[in-house]
Amino acid sequence: MFHVLVTLDVNYLPPLKMLMNSLFRNNNRPFTFYLLYSRIPEIESELLKQFVERRKSISLCRFI
Question: How far apart are CA 38 and CA 35, in angstroms?
Fold first, then answer.
């Protein structure tokens, strides 16, 4: 398993999804992403959660 720590705000969500997609498509091992963030609206947080749930080998740990 790989562990990835990402610090971000709402502006970094699109690149984060691109990073997750790339790792998911190009590796066979599971990932845990640790997110340290601020100022992410609840709707964006929910969309990110749905995005991650569609990828079974990625889990998400959020630090607010």
Answer: 10
Query: How many domains, the chain?
Result: 1
List the one residue out of 14, 49, 11 whose CA is nearest residue 33: 49
Helix axes 42-53, 13-26, angle to 10 degrees: 10
How far apart CA 21 and CA 26 sit, in angstroms, is 8
Domain around 17:
2-63
Residue 11: what pLDDT? Answer: 94
Model-level pTM? 0.78
Nearest to 9 by CA among 31, 36, 27, 47: 36
